[in-house]
Amino acid sequence: MSLKISRRHMLRTSTLALAGLCAASRRVLAGGMNMEMDMQPSGNSPALAPFVDALRIPPVLNPVMRGKTAHYTMTMRAGLSKVHRDLPATVVWGFDGIYPGPTIWATRGHPVAIRHVSRLPDMHQDGMAAMAMMYPSVHLHGAHVAPQHDGHPREAISPDAFRDFHYPNQQRAATLLYHDHSHGQTGLHVYYGMAGCYLIKDPNEEALNLPTGEFDIPLMIQDRVFKADGSFHYMLDASTRETGVLGDTILVNGVVQPYLKVARRKYRLRIINASNARAYQLQLSTAEPLIHIATDGGLLPKPAPQAVIDLAPFERVDVVVDFGAYTLGTQVVLKNGGSGAGSLGSIMRFDVDIPAVDDSTVPDCLSAWEDLPVDAQTPTREFVLNRKSSPAGTVWTINDELYEMSNPPLAQVKHGALERWRFLNPTNHPHPVHIHLIQFQVLNINGVPQDPARHGWKDVLVAPPGGEITVAARFKGYTGRYLFHCHNLEHEDLGMMADYEIVP
After folding, report:
1. What's residue 65's pLDDT?
2. Does the pLDDT at position 338 exceed 90?
């Protein structure tokens, strides 16, 4: 038996080692170099009482069936959204004018076509000065799609025009999201509401008898700063160019610190961090573990109870919480550990007040797993995530390059190739890097070998401050250009993005 196999076997059979590696690698992201200072809000909202508004469940969009393809139409437009009892309605930019956008449920192997129509304005008053608005381009984050349907900024949609996107859904069941990907203004547009849930189900997964239907709930977490009139406060200045735009108020599904009345039974919570820059440490106020069952790319091999789950921007985790363990009248708060109390310490509250009979289960085995066959001959590419100074302020680079749509691809990958990608981060900020098209496996963090099965299939990696991370992926399915970039949205907008190209 080789040394590599022995090490992985040791990691997988030692619960203590697995927990230690996972905790050590991700604690750096939340508590590492100057992170408390770096995560300070970008403004001051009016004081808002928590847990006074019910959680909003985004409406599920119903398709028109043409043959085997489900067709949808969404219009990007301004709208009004009531985010808190004590705030006036907030002007949002939303898909169909709502915040978050409507949810789409898709089924593996069944194609979906979405026509996105733009009715957004040409100009935006951002509180500093009127600015020309970049046209939106809609990206389905985590989707395995042809490049012309991936939502590259080059495929922007001009006002009163539309673009059709086709999603074959030939991938594992998973929690995805769609969002704006406009050139240089992704942070602004997402902050104003341009994101929604896209959930892929699979009959094989449904056979596991996990919680479904009304007990399977998407939770999109975002942080925002509000003005007294209820409007969003988005400010790109010297500070936010460095840290990204950070709110002082947490919203779930577009509602400030909501509550949800739950039954005494198990719930599946699909948690999405759709914040511009803020990472979260998810934990329950009761100290009971969250049963982690899925990540960006779908189900883990087996359930993983965790006291704390770190969630960087645009990572997703599916967890099961068994509210049957509590008596009626119990209040359970989903906390953001490490952020104290108040508007950043609590995310939402669950009120256990409905009797129920629960026949759902969390099986010991969730999904088959196979490590990618990485060996000494597997090619390795290195990417350095860094900053530069410019006359306008801090900008962000990959391999010393600022992103421009005219740039040549930073990497060319042979179709079907298996490669290692190593990301080096000499800065004092974590960089959550999203690679379009593919799902990858995590091999190494800061020199510590990882058990890929523990992390699951991922499309967002987190390069730790002053450290490095190596992942492996097979680049197959389509040829053409795709993006990879930091998912701190301001870092992305300020240059930390590049094309790569899959060639025949």
Report:
1. 97
2. no
**351 burial type by CB count under 10 A (0-12 exposed, 13-18 middle, 19+ buried):** middle
The pairing of strands 290-295 and 298-306 is: antiparallel
pLDDT of residue 132: 67
Q: How many residues does the chain have?
A: 504
Q: Are 373 and 357 in contact (CB under 8 A)?
A: no
**DSSP E strands: which ranges in 149-265?**
162-167, 174-180, 195-201, 216-224, 249-252, 255-256, 259-263
Write down the CATH superfamily of domain 209-354: Cupredoxins -  blue copper proteins (2.60.40.420)
* Dihedral sign of CA atoms 2, 367, 365, 286 in order: positive
pLDDT score of 4 more than 50: no
The domain defined by 3-31+369-503 folds into Immunoglobulin-like (2.60.40)
Give the pLDDT of residue 347.
98
CA angle 28, 224, 297 (to 5 degrees): 55
Q: Tokens standing for 11? A: 């990691």
Q: φ, ψ for residue 27 (rounded to 5)?
A: -60, -30
Q: Under 8 Å CB-to-CB from 90, ≥6 apart: which residues? A: 80, 81, 82, 83, 99, 226, 230, 231, 232
What's the pLDDT at 123? 67
Contact 153, 182 (CB under 8 A): yes
| Inter-residue contact 464 to 488 (CB < 8 Å) | no
Quote the tokens at residue 233: 């406060």
